[in-house]
Design a protein that fits this description.
Elements (H helix, E strand, L loop, with lengths): L2 H5 L6 E2 L16 H14 L24 H5 L1 E3 L9 E2 L5 E2 L8 E3 L2 E3 L2 E5 L2 E6 L4 E10 L8 E8 L2 E5 L3 E2 L5 E6 L5 E8 L8 E11 L8 E3 L18 E2 L4 E4 L4 E5 L2 E2 L5 E4 L6 E4 L4 E5 L4 E11 L2 E11 L10 E4 L1 H4 L5 H13 L9 E3 L5 E4 L5 E3 L6 H10 L3 E6 L16 H11 L3 E5 L3 H4 L5 H16 L6 E5 L17 E3 L8 H9 L13 E3 L7 E2 L6 E2 L4 H13 L4 E3 L8 H7 L2 H7 L8 E6 L2 E7 L5 E7 L5 E6 H4 L5 E5 L4 E6 L2 E6 L4 E8 L13
Parallel strand pairs: 18-25, 26-27, 26-37, 27-30, 30-31, 31-32, 32-33, 33-34
Antiparallel strand pairs: 1-13, 2-15, 3-8, 4-7, 5-6, 7-15, 8-14, 8-16, 9-13, 9-15, 10-11, 10-12, 10-14, 17-20, 19-23, 21-24, 22-23, 24-25, 28-29, 35-36, 38-39, 39-40, 40-45, 41-44, 42-43, 42-45
The structure holds beta-D-galactopyranose (GAL).
The site of beta-D-galactopyranose has 10 residues, from loops.
């Protein structure tokens, strides 16, 4: 028995008294104003007759709202008054004073004025500041789930689980929770599904409250996972020369070709290429290939890079063909998550400068994408102009190209963009031609005000504007990667490729929070079958580094482990890697997270097969994708708030026999394993591995560990 259990009176950590009678649901969920009223009035005078809770609450029949004495009321902090945006939840969002579907909190017909409505899985972390002596609640599946839903509530105090309920079912008896918190620093409240999936798992922490210690100065706060833990990952770039992904690129014959060979090593580097298609030229000092492909077809181009420390070789595959772009998921930078509408010419030039000087370009990041807010008005001929923040778009494109990088731009098929700037409706061909004249290499085409034009959300209406711009791009004389953005409507992953999209947003906008990133990332399961060379699922841009949607920036609110999960997932998903932070403020950790060559090789794998979930067990998940060289990339994820073990079973992965396991984030071999590999994974953390049939690794000296 741990110290918290020991303190809980009578050896009973929680009780399971019946919670009142079935009754009519008469009360809508409290409005903000109503809630305020309740909060103001309750401690003062809304106490009902009776009493009840152990340790100071006035007696009330079981299941009735217990009324605190005035002194206790003053020390009562209802859970719903904490910032519930910190609650990590798999479906919906945590609700103050009502159920997850915003109905009155109701358990077995009894309506509770206070509490938090959540949905499995959920976790709320409370930094107690040593200021609480007790946590109390009545928990169960809200009546809005009728007789469906099954959940388990758990309470963790300072890392120790002190309460775990039975599986509670819809319509079943709620249970009381009463936990001693004296001296405790952290409280974690979790709801897990009851073993049958999360459907209908509407879970109520009814009447949930903290009793503060007398005279408490500080107040408990909801919080995210502590960010102190720094994952051990490899960083730095070896002095020896090395060539990196992408190792395949494509272009249309007759259109301008540009590719910067990603390579690292001690300067100066010198590049050589054999078998380069005619009309392409390699600058041996910069590694930038320019020119025009003369013909369709695939060419294997052996590349070498030499530095004072040696020589490295690799093969670049050049694919010439109609719409042969985005052979691997585009890697680059986009202005939106950092600058929002505050983007301007200087910031874009700076992004290009830092892309090169930080080493990101040497690791394969190529695109510099201007998102919304570059647009001006149309001239008398209807030609789109830039606004005053972008004095000369052609000069900007030339500047970006001079570094071997590519320039992206943004528009909407509607009359206005999402930020209310001029967009492309009924000017599609003129716009595509203008982009081509400027030297644009990528277009993000964002639904926005087309919502007013579309008759409905039928497949035909959803596809229509994207086909119009597709045709315009085909006719504009320049290769322009086509990025569809319409937030996943109509299951865009099922048809994005049929309208000629090179990648398509599968979700709404990402934010730098665990719930947003993890909700989007883990929600991609099943979409993998629709991704492949030239057409990718896009779960939105990265939220590492200094982000902010401009002009004010802040460090990402993802913990370091959550950032590892983010990039691990995006790599397994074969998602575009579009950095959304200020490249002039890259700290060592962010740079290491963005430039791990082995992780990027998974993202850029030429086979182009994206990962799906192969196993899930509560809050742990295993995802995997096959790689071109026969290995398997495997992600081990812990979505929970406590460290746990995650096991990759060969059976789930469809493999057999002895496998050499390598840890890509640490860039080191772990050993050889038969049947399964198990690792400890930190809260909200991940591991990215490759598994390789041992016989394909003759040189490995690793020993087998059980
Ligand atoms: C949103 C889009 C964002 C960003 C923004 C610009 O619709 O999802 O990624 O492009 O518009 O206004």
């Amino acid at each position: 028995m741990n110290r918290h259990q020991a303190r809980n009176a009578g050896g009973r950590r929680w009780s399971s008294a019946p919670q009142g009678h079935k009754g009519r649901r008469w009360q809508r969920c409290a409005s903000a104003a109503g809630l305020l009223l309740i909060l103001l009035c309750l401690p003062a005078g809304c106490a009902r007759e009776g009493g009840g809770w152990l340790g100071g609450w006035r007696h009330a029949p079981k299941g009735e709202v217990a009324a605190p004495s005035a002194e206790l009321a003053a020390r009562t902090l209802y859970l719903q008054t904490l910032d519930l945006s910190f609650c990590d939840q798999q479906w919906g969002s945590a609700q103050a004073g009502c159920s997850v579907e915003k109905n009155p909190l109701t358990l077995q017909g009894k309506v509770h004025e206070h509490g938090v409505g959540t949905h499995a899985y959920s976790a709320l972390i409370v930094d107690l500041k040593g200021a609480a002596e007790r946590f109390q609640a009545v928990v169960g599946v809200d009546d809005e789930s009728a007789d469906k839903g099954s959940v388990v509530f758990a309470v963790v105090v300072d890392g120790e689980e002190v309460v775990r309920t039975d599986v509670l079912r819809g319509g079943g008896e709620p249970q009381e929770i009463n936990v001693d918190l004296a001296g405790a620093r952290q409280l974690i409240l979790t709801v897990e599904d009851g073993g049958d999936g999360i459907d209908h798992d509407h879970a109520d922490w009814a009447n949930a409250r903290l009793v503060l210690v007398p005279g408490a100065v500080e107040r408990p706060l909801a919080t995210r996972l502590a960010a102190e833990r720094m994952p051990l990952i490899a960083s730095g770039t070896p002095r020896a020369p090395a060539l990196h992904a992408p190792r395949v690129t494509g272009a249309t014959p007759g259109r301008p070709f540009l590719f910067r060979i990603p390579a690292t090593g001690e300067a100066p580097l010198r590049f050589e290429a054999a078998n380069l298609p005619p009309d392409l030229t390699l600058d041996s000092d910069t590694g930038i290939i320019t020119g025009t492909l003369a013909a369709e077809g695939t060419t294997a181009v052996p590349i070498t890079v030499t530095s004072p420390c040696g020589t490295a070789g690799s093969t670049l595959t050049i694919v010439g063909g109609h719409r042969a772009l985005a052979q691997t998921p585009p890697m680059g930078w986009n202005s939106w998550n950092v600058w929002g509408t505050a983007v301007d010419d200087a910031k874009v030039r700076a992004a290009a400068d830092y892309m090169v000087s930080s080493g990101l370009a040497s690791h394969g990041y190529q695109y510099i994408n201007i998102d919304d807010a570059w647009e001006g008005q149309r001239d008398a001929e209807g030609r789109i102009q830039t606004n005053e923040k972008f004095p000369d778009m052609k000069a900007l494109a030339d500047y970006v190209h001079s570094k071997g990088l590519k320039l992206g731009i943004y528009s909407s098929p509607g009359p206005k963009t999402c930020a209310d700037y001029e967009a492309s409706y009924q000017h599609e061909q003129l716009d595509a031609n203008t982009y081509a004249e400027w030297g644009i290499d990528l277009l993000k085409y964002d639904w926005c005000s087309y919502e007013k034009i579309a008759a409905d959300h039928s497949l035909e209406e959803l596809r229509k504007p994207y086909l119009v711009m597709r045709e315009a791009l085909d006719n504009c004389g320049r290769d322009i990667v086509y990025s569809l953005c319409q937030y996943g409507m109509g299951n865009v992953w099922e048809w994005g490729a049929t309208v000629g999209g090179n990648y398509w947003r599968t979700t709404g906008d990402i934010w730098d929070s665990w719930s947003s990133m993890a909700g989007i990332g883990f929600g991609q399961n099943g979409h993998e079958v629709h991704a492949g060379p030239g057409h990718w699922n896009d779960p939105d841009m990265l939220v590492v580094g200094q982000v902010g949607w401009g002009p004010e920036l802040h460090a990402t609110r993802l913990t370091p482990d959550e950032q590892i999960t983010h990039i691990t997932l995006w790599s397994l998903l074969a998602a575009p890697l579009l950095i959304g932070c200020d490249l002039s403020q890259l700290d060592d950790f962010t740079l290491a997270v963005l430039t791990n060559t082995e992780v990027l090789e998974v993202n850029q794998d030429p086979l182009g097969k994206a990962a799906g979930r192969v196993a899930g067990n509560g809050r742990t998940e295993v995802w995997a994708r096959p790689l071109a060289d026969g290995a398997l990339a495997v992600g081990l994820f812990n979505r929970g708030v406590q460290e746990t073990t995650v096991t990759a079973e060969w059976e789930d992965l469809g493999i057999k026999g002895c496998q050499a396991v390598r840890d890509l984030w640490r860039r080191r071999d772990i050993g050889h394993y038969d049947n399964a590999y198990t690792a400890h994974v930190p809260p909200h953390g991940a591991m990215l591995l490759t598994l390789r049939a041992a016989s394909t690794q003759p040189g490995s000296a690793e020993t087998t560990t059980p």
